[in-house]
Amino acid sequence: MPADETAPVPRYRQVAEQLAREIAEGTLPADARIASERELAEQFGISRMTARAAINILVRRGLITRRSGARAYVAPPKIRFDLSSPEGLYRQLEHAGIKPGARVITAEKLPCEAVEPQVCRALALAEDDEVYHIVRLRTADEEPIALEDSYFPVRLFPDLLDFHLTGSIYGILRKYFDVIPAQSVQELEISLLDAEWAEVMGVPVDLPTLEIRRTAFTEKGVPFEYAHDIYRGDRIIFTARTATSGQPAEPTGWQQALDNLHTGLA
């Protein structure tokens, strides 16, 4: 059906919304080929430039992906990640029937004086304490979806780097160190992926991302991880749950952790 020239919504947005509805309804299933710009132009009575603008909107929203140059296909369904869950990404992917994976980029032990001050403040470390610095590329069904830049106190996990770090680090902490993640303080910021990390992930520069700076706490309120994570906004839907009366109290150091996160953003 031709796009409505008299409608207040631009024609390229009308076409984009029509395609989005067909994707949501399953008329255009995952991996289905999207009509070419020429075909869309004929179908909706628009120019090829207008058709290209419609497709570009859906590419930015993560509903369509381009392959082999200009060919466009329906992207796989987005991954849901619950930001309010104490479970890490690994277990959430497993529960969703998605194969989790990770590639270690950096794994080192550093003195507190060698890292940003907010890291040691967030982890309540003294000047002579040490931290593990671990950077990983996270994957879902072998597709890169996130970068994790994490710090862990050496005094809590003395031989952490001796473990296989391509699986669930939280699983290692539970099994071998009796540390159960309970709550976290998080700062969220929308940004665009820079050239350095885009190359690491093998995705386009300026991809929309969600940056999360997080301090995680044990059940006893002890901070055990400070992290700066970057998640692909085109492949993940983020969810969160609100607390109700009767929920556990805020962990010890909650406000201090929040202040530290703000300090890191300043």
Topology:
Blueprint (H helix, E strand, L loop, with lengths): L10 H15 L11 H8 L3 H13 L3 E4 L3 E4 L4 E4 L6 H7 L4 E12 L5 H6 L7 E11 L2 E11 L15 H9 L3 E12 L2 H7 L6 E11 L4 E10 L3 E4 L14 H12 L1
Parallel strand pairs: 3-10
Antiparallel strand pairs: 1-2, 4-5, 5-6, 6-9, 7-8, 8-9
Helix pairs in contact: 1-3, 2-3
List the defining traits of the structure above.
29% helix, alpha+beta, disordered C terminus, two-stranded antiparallel sheet, 10 strands, Arc Repressor Mutant, subunit A, Chorismate lyase, 266 residues
Characterise the protein shown here.
- A hairpin with a 4-residue loop joins strand 8 (208-218) and strand 9.
- This protein has helices at residues 11-25, 37-44, 48-60, 89-95, 117-122, 169-177, 195-201, 254-265; strands at residues 64-67, 71-74, 79-82, 100-111, 130-140, 143-153, 181-192, 208-218, 223-232, 236-239.
- It has 8 helices and 10 strands.
- The termini are far apart.
- The relative contact order is 0.13.
- It has 2 domains: 11-74, Winged helix-like DNA-binding domain superfamily/Winged helix DNA-binding domain (Arc Repressor Mutant, subunit A, Orthogonal Bundle); 79-265, Chorismate lyase-like (Chorismate lyase), CATH 3.40.1410.10.
- It has a 6-stranded antiparallel β-sheet. The protein has a two-stranded antiparallel sheet with strand order 1-2. A two-stranded parallel ribbon has the order 3-10.
- The radius of gyration is 22 Å and the shape is elongated.
- The protein has 266 residues and is an alpha+beta fold.
